[in-house]
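Holo prediction. Input below; ligand is zinc ion.
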Amino acid sequence: MAQVQVNNVTVSQGVRMLFSLMTPNESSFATVQEVPKYVNQATPYFSGLILLEIVLGWLKTDGPRIKINDFITSLSAGMMSRLPQLVMRSLELSAYIYVWNNFRLLELPWDSAWTWWLAFLGVDMGYYWFHRFAHELNILWAAHQVHHSSEYYNLSTALRQSVTQQFSSWAFYLPLALMVPPSVFAVHVQFNLLYQFWIHTELVKDLGPLEWILNTPSHHRVHHGRNPYCIDKNYAGILIIWDRMFGTFAPESDKVVYGLTHPISTFQIWTVEFLYYPYLWQRFWEAEGISNKLSVIFKGPGWTPGKPRLGDIADIPQITGEEMPHDPTWSPAMQAYVLVQFLLLLDVYNNLLKDQTILSEMTALLLTGYVLLSLTSLGFLIDQRANAAEMEMLRCVLIMALQQFGYIKPLVPLLAFPIEAFVLIAAVYWSLQCVNQRINRMKKQN
Ligand SMILES: [Zn+2]
Ligand SMILES: [Zn+2]
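Structure of the complex:
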């Protein structure tokens, strides 16, 4: 019987990939070059599950809360975090291959199920320690806090990833490179990441005995909480056993309030991604003496002079249960506009990743610039900034130029004309908004 394929994998494989249910037989390869890009192949399955969660959210009165502003910000962070891949192989894999080539102690066979399972455990434990350090060292937290900055908890939160995290995570997998071939590692590092997608949901409550062994939505909800009992808990990737073994496990009890202890209250993607670095820099300069300066960098984000390494849990803001996520009102028409523009952008972005090997450097650079400008402009619109109209007008003009010269093509040719008309009307609308704002400003000055 013919098997249905979506994005080069059978539906069965696509679904099993997301739950780490692949077998050694179907996912063992001799060389790194043969290893499929599982994460890219999984995109349609991500989208499918996100849609399912949205539909179930509508149907259930106590279903998950999904807001367009937060949703787009999470997806924007995910998009931004994958852009460096256009110019380089992931640091995790490059560093791993380097150590394997130069320092390996033994060569486990790539086609043995034992090697496969050892890599499964090794990658998962490596992830546990990376994740724990990412919360316990302020300099690593600067990158990882991006993932925790949403005050909602749904599947889109899983995609809210940091651009800079990849510069530290690679180090934690290197012990494996002393014996496990890179092709086996390249499979498991992807499966580990993919597994962590589905656990970002409030729809799955309790999985019974599985809660003992696996990282589940319930355990990971605790990890995303800012209630005192949630802080620095449940670092697991796939197996929760590491938290149980190393003393960082906490079961879900009180209703979890999600997000950072001090919410950032913005949807501007550059702020979400990089805000913590200038803050860290400022704290570094303000700290007195070299010992305090080093502590600011290498102790926990909650540390202050005279406090324990990870800070004092009594210092974090109390949870009242009345906390409301940052969600300024904006018109339904503007929400629809931003959503449509974002979906159009998503199409360009997908094509860019898909065609990266056949695009010229200039074209890839131009489209990357367009994606970044778009994420910025849509973030300005969501944040309702004063200069949002000017930036969006410029962006619409740029889209028209890119369409004109064939750099942007719609998913379906039939949509070309309606999209062009939509962008033209948007450009006129934003121009009028700019004129209007200028007149108002002049009136005020007079
Ligand atoms: Zn975390
Ligand atoms: Zn998470």
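The two ends are 77 Å apart (CA to CA). That is the main takeaway for now.
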